[in-house]
Amino acid sequence: LPELHRVFLHEISHLFCCENEIEGGGFFDRYCMGSGAEDGMMNAGYAVWREAVADIMADSILSEYTSLTLADVREEVGRLYRMLSPADPDSKKCMSLILVYVMATKEVGGMTKWADAETGLKQHLGLEDPALYAVLKMAFDNLHRSPFWSITPDFIMELGEAYLSLLSHKFLRERLS
Hints:
This protein is mostly helical. It has helices spanning 2-20, 27-31, 37-62, 70-83, 91-103, 106-109, 114-124, 130-143, 153-176.
């Protein structure tokens, strides 16, 4: 039953965000229905962000995840990071979950400045990927704006570009090593 409760809150969060993420609602219908290269970045950014925010909203309502530390999530974040690949259709979900786990920790969620959060991340996560930290910083910054669920086309495009850049850099690093 607790998992069903969480899924319900996650889906309700999606509905709330769809109506409230931009004035007049309907971000996906307005900005993610094309098929060009920019649309791929927009769709990737939107998928990563929307899943992460729905989970963060559901978790904040349940409040059972607010006591996580980076030490608690280190192994899972590392596993999800290793799964990130242009060939894996689940990569966007993995990136969303990385955002959820990291942003829900005391060391990151409790910070107001990215520099402080980044210091804790680098000490405790054991991941040294500048492209990953670029995505994390973008999410951190947007989550610290009010209201945190609101988005702009520019933010989603930049997030999508940063996410796809992370996949590309990671793919090349793994192939060249």
